[in-house]
Design goal:
The complex is a heterodimer of chains A (563) and B (210). By secondary structure, chain A is mainly α. Helix content of chain A is 65%, strand content 2%. Chain B is 47% helix and 7% strand. In chain B, strand 1 and strand 2 form a beta hairpin. Chain B is elongated, with a radius of gyration of 28 Å. Classes of the chains: A mainly alpha (563), B mainly alpha (210).
Chain lengths: 563, 210
């Protein structure tokens, strides 16, 4: 292992992200600012056609309640149709490998998982889904759930930056998120991935005759088109069971970098979009830098921990200079694996290119902590909104300390807003820790644990953290395809998504009604280093107070008792 | 009445043509159907069409065929080589059966993993008396993530040369050259790790054995 090369390749990827943030953030601003711009000429005809097809004549602005209602209605319709398809996939076309219908609780879990942008998978794609389901349910929801997240962020930003009491029109935002952002990007990324050897075919499983006279079955399918939107939409559900560690999903380090940037680009760029809407670019960069500081800290921890290897295996006597290679792929090594793990749990994508269950204890603590915080870039849209929620909380705390009414972007933050924010913030630990405790109380829950000792606690905790954060990665050893786990995690994913979305749209609606308070010398500024520090402190403090005890029981105890 | 006062300032935006709930329900049903067809059918089929037309080899799994056109494997999917005469890849809990994929997902503290690794180490010592265990990269004794890892590091290939030379009679120089020929550098000189494709290496090795 070559530390210099490792640091260099990680730095280059971060550098590439920095180059993307401004242009993409500006572009997203133009898409949703509803001011005429150059790209209209290309997209207007398509959108007009879609508006006509959907009968969307009335495209007036909506109050937060109507916006939230339209969102829920659309998500509900998609869920019902998707669930039905999974239950009858055996009789539908494009099923060359003869895959059976999916069971009831597994379908329930799967459909909520994809609609909520989680992509927790209690099935294995190559054996559990027909190509038709992979396309029409899974790929479709990878678009629609990401678009849902993005428009929530846009509506929230509008609420806190413009006057008028409305947040925009959900349906037009939803259409534009597809036509102008997700679909064009997905097509480009798909074709690049195919060029780099990710397959895209409707043929059935291949039979190979190996040179030593054996037969090898090779599952294949329309992988690239799923791979692109899986990352662009921060979804994370793999075509194959082992996700992006499968050589067909992620055949080389270059595809690995493209997948990393694909999932990172939109959440990171939205901070810039926020700056544009707030007409204060510094405001956006402050949010970006707080996220980046946390990101680099966690990345370093997982990189160092994996490089040092697993002390138990190091004792066997082989050459361990490669680091901890159990559950990792040769082509990625430690650097590309550690980077992928950190990005996928920051951006709450949940795809994996190495097995998180097998990460060293402190390495495994990193993805878990990032999902517990849920604000370091975060999923498309919702990550930014979560961080802005912490920003409002930080302003509130700072206001309490100096005895002033807190203000954020010129709006007074009042008890009604803080109540909604408190609901959103408290829901997250509640739906992680509550179900974790319930699972240990019953054999239905604890029976799924496959690793002995403290790691068993980590397996259960990880599963619920991943569900609540709408991440979807797993400590995959957990035997989780049982009615108990399907229903429990299904409910957690549902609450994890919609409680905070509704509460935060409520905050945005309330703030958008408020009078602008002119800035004075006494105003607590939110676009400087001091505020970045306060925000960072708030995130760490709340996160640590809530989750440190349970982290001590799981990964930290395992670390202390290992070899 | 406070509400009305507020609304007056932004009446132009909302008040006149508020969409009815019925209208919202109908639009949400129709918009769902449109995007199910657009994202779930048109998008993947268009991508498949373009990919098959422009890059058929990659789109069909980068398959390797023999002179008769029989598929012998994929250049990106690993294969099982039980025979010690061939270069060996990573440990695979699924024996490189690419109909599925997976690993054991052992926790770092799992005693089963330690037992399996010790077993692999003992097997190494038995099959490779000329190369001491401390020179063997740990990756040869550990399970990959996918169970289908097609590659090993150049060092992992080199430590197998003495064994293969002894069993096949092929000189170590020739084997060394083969390994070097199949060593791929980092992508663009920066990304990932240098590596050797085990299947391609063994395809070149096969005619030399006998």
């Amino acid at each position: 292992m070559n530390v210099g090369m490792d640091v260099l390749q990680i730095a280059v990827v971060i550098g590439l992200l920095l180059l993307i943030v401004k242009p993409l953030g500006t572009y997203i601003y133009h898409v949703f600012s509803n001011e005429p711009n150059k790209t209209d000429r290309i997209f207007h005809p398509v959108e007009k056609f879609i508006f006509w097809l959907t009968g969307l004549k009335n495209r007036s602005e909506m109050s937060w309640k109507r916006y939230a209602l339209s969102l829920l209605l659309t998500n509900a319709v998609l869920t019902v149709i998707g669930f039905t398809i999974l239950r009858i996939q055996k009789w539908l076309p494009l099923n060359p490998n003869g895959i059976d219908n999916m069971g009831t609780t597994l379908s329930f879990n799967t459909i909520i998982s994809f609609m909520t942008n989680t992509n927790l998978q209690h099935y294995s794609g190559e054996t559990g889904l027909s190509y038709f389901s992979q396309m029409i349910v899974i790929m479709m929801m990878m678009f629609t759930s990401a678009a849902t997240g993005i428009v929530v962020a846009i509506a929230f930003i509008r609420g806190i930056t413009k006057k008028g009491g409305t947040l925009g029109n959900f349906f037009t935002d939803f259409v534009k998120a597809h036509t102008r952002l997700l679909i064009p990007l997905a097509i480009v990324v798909t074709l690049v991935l195919v060029g780099l050897k990710v397959p895209q075919t409707l043929d059935s499983t291949i039979q190979a005759q190996t040179i030593t006279g054996e037969t090898q079955q090779i599952a294949i399918g329309p992988v690239a088109s799923l791979e692109s939107i899986k990352h662009l939409g921060t979804n994370g559900g793999g075509f194959f069971g082992v996700n992006s560690s499968h050589p067909f999903e992620n055949p080389n380090p270059l595809t690995n970098v493209i997948e990393i940037l694909s999932m990172w680009a939109i959440p990171a760029s939205l901070t810039y979009t926020f700056g544009r809407f707030a007409k204060n670019q510094k405001q956006g960069w402050i949010v970006f830098s707080v996220m980046s500081i946390l990101f680099v800290a966690f990345l370093s921890l997982v990189y160092i921990s994996e490089s040092n290897g697993n002390p138990v295996l190091n004792s066997v006597g082989a050459d361990v200079s490669q680091g901890s290679m159990e559950g990792k792929e040769t082509r990625f090594g430690i650097a590309q694996s550690a980077l992928f793990t950190t990005v996928t749990t920051s951006a709450t994508t949940g795809s994996v290119n190495n097995m998180h269950d097998t990460l060293t204890p402190l390495g495994g603590l990193v993805p878990m902590s990032l999902m517990m915080l849920n604000v370091v870039f975060g999923g498309d849209g919702v990550g930014l909104v979560n961080m802005l929620m912490y920003a409002i909380l930080a302003v509130f705390l700072a206001g309490l300390m100096v005895g002033r009414t807190p203000e954020f972007l010129g709006r007074k933050i009042e008890p009604h807003d803080m109540k909604l924010i408190a609901i959103a913030i408290l829901a997250h630990p509640l739906i992680i820790l509550g179900p974790t405790a319930i699972s240990f109380l019953t054999n239905l829950g604890s029976g799924a644990i496959t690793n002995p000792g403290f790691h068993g606690i980590s397996q259960v905790l990880y599963e619920y953290t991943s569900s609540a954060a709408n991440n979807g990665s797993g400590f995959e050893g957990l035997a989780d395809n049982t009615p108990f786990w399907n229903i429990m995690t299904g409910v957690v994913m549902f609450l994890g998504r919609y409680v905070s979305i509704i509460a935060l749209l409520g905050v945005a609606g309330s703030l958008s009604h408020k009078k602008w308070v002119p800035e004075t010398i006494g105003t607590f500024r939110t676009d400087n280093k001091l505020f970045a520090g306060v925000l960072l402190g708030t995130v760490i403090l709340i996160g640590a107070l809530t989750f440190l005890p349970v982290l001590v029981l799981g990964p930290i105890a395992e670390y202390l008792t290992l070899g | 009445m406070n509400m009305n006062m507020n609304l007056q300032t932004n009446a132009r935006a909302e008040a006149p043509t508020k969409p009815s709930i019925g209208n919202m329900i109908s639009v949400s049903i129709r918009i769902s159907i449109v995007f199910i067809i657009l994202c779930g059918l048109i998008y993947p089929l268009v991508c498949t069409g373009i990919a098959q037309l422009v890059m058929p080899a990659q789109a069909n799994g980068s398959l390797i065929k023999d002179a008769q056109g029989t598929v012998i494997g994929s250049s990106v999917i690993g294969q099982n080589f039980k025979d010690q005469k061939y270069f060996q890849g990573r440990i695979s809990s699924i024996d490189y059966n690419a109909a599925s994929s997976g690993s054991n997902n052992y926790a770092p503290s799992n005693p089963d993993m330690l037992a399996r690794t010790k077993e692999a180490a003992a097997a190494w010592v038995k099959n490779n008396p000329d190369v001491p265990l401390r020179e063997v990269p740990i990756q040869l004794l550990t399970n990959s993530a996918s169970g289908l890892d097609p590659q090993i590091s150049p060092k992992s290939a080199e430590v197998q040369i003495p064994r293969i030379s002894k069993l096949t009679g092929v000189s170590t120089e020739i084997l060394q050259n083969l390994v070097e020929k199949h060593t791929e550098g980092r992508d663009l000189g920066i990304f990932g790790e240098p590596r050797v494709n085990v299947l391609k290496l063994n395809i070149d090795l096969q005619p030399l054995i006998k």
